[in-house]
Known about the structure:
The protein has 197 residues and is an alpha+beta fold. The protein has one domain: Jann2411-like domain (Jann2411-like fold), CATH 1.10.3300. It contains seven helices and six strands, in the order H-H-E-E-H-H-H-E-E-H-E-E-H. It has helices at residues 3-10, 22-27, 44-52, 69-89, 97-104, 131-148, 180-196, and strands at residues 30-33, 36-39, 108-114, 120-126, 154-156, 165-167.
Amino acid sequence: xxxxxxxxxxxxxxxxxxxxxxxxxxxxxxxxxxxxxxxxxxxxxxxxxxxxxxxxxxxxxxxxxxxxxxxxxxxxxxxxxxxxxxxxxxxxxxxxxxxxxxxxxxxxxxxxxxxxxxxxxxxxxxxxxxxxxxxxxxxxxxxxxxxxxxxxxxxxxxxxxxxxxxxxxxxxxxxxxxxxxxxxxxxxxxxxxxxxx
Length: 197
């Protein structure tokens, strides 16, 4: 089975949730299989479905933004995040001005709510339905990774045909694959075939 089939079957939106960090999963909305690019975001609706998986939804129903705006902004944020995270991983000092624009568009208000168990919790609710407000939590995850993340734990899958990223939260920090079920097994099967030859 091709990795694209596995990825598309994994979730309704197709994009894998293998990164163990929202910023890594943002980068993983693009993948590769047999040298071919796989784009998981082709419409505003696909971006909205992906955001909903992280409990990021529009502040109110009924208001709409111009068609294609969310898709365009989400892809721009993804490209920016890839550049910033790569520079951070390479020990460079990334230019943060563009990311701050996304963060400043994220207008929120503190709200006291009850969780499913009835306990009080403080959360932040978006005060806008703009694309900036919807993408704000994702931009904030990228910023948090740059501030709090450990460079050595930001990794890309070691399979030669995979470009997926992950934050290595394993105890020994020796994770090598985006997923053992995807690339780990593919690699081991290829190695086994080589040995048999």
